Amino acid sequence: MGGRQSAMNSGSRPGKNRSHRSWEKKVAEGATLVYLDEVGFSLKGVRRRTWSTRGVTPLVTLPANWEKLSTIGAITSDGRFFQQTKSGAIRSGDVIRFFQHLLRHVQGEIVVVLDDAGIHRAKATQAFVETHERLSLVFLPPYAPELNPIELVWAYVKRNVLGNFCARSVSELKAKLVTAWQRVRYIDLPRQLMNANLCRYQ
């Protein structure tokens, strides 16, 4: 993990009265490392290559609206996957609820790696973290999605589950995403990504 240490802002942990242990030391001592991110899915669909009669361009009619679903999700250093999906955009309150979800399901100390989006830096979010000793945040540098392996979960879902799928309604899209999350867990994708990430930085 040493190759990633310099890229992460380990000094951005909130909480004035927290232990001065670094996030690296916490993980070395058994804390669970959690990679968190948000993603949006719209009714516009994800175009992929497909087959068609020569000379005939395949056409798909899509609903003319901009409704979307947003997911906040995380993968853990022991290969688990958590997600919550809702209509509209993810707000700071949703981030706090997701943190509460993590605290219920992950034992011991938790080090969350995430980008520095406004909803992660919001006063309400920071206040919540400050009141939970088990929870620490490590912020990624700007424009560095390659440092967050959960981005590959979103890419997999869009490419292999939602590719060329055209939902006619938000409920249909939500049902398809349920299938996507089941597939992510079935193929043990989070564990594969975490193992690959560990090898990358050894």
From TrEMBL:
Residue span, Tc1-like transposase DDE domain: 33-173
Disordered: annotated span: 1-23
NCBIfam families, sorted: transpos_IS630
PANTHER family, per the entry: TRANSPOSASE
This protein's name: IS630 family transposase
InterPro entries (UniProt xref): RNaseH_sf, Tc1-like_DDE_dom, Transpos_IS630-like
Comp. bias (Polar residues): 1-12
Parts forming coiled coils: none
Top-level taxon of origin: Bacteria
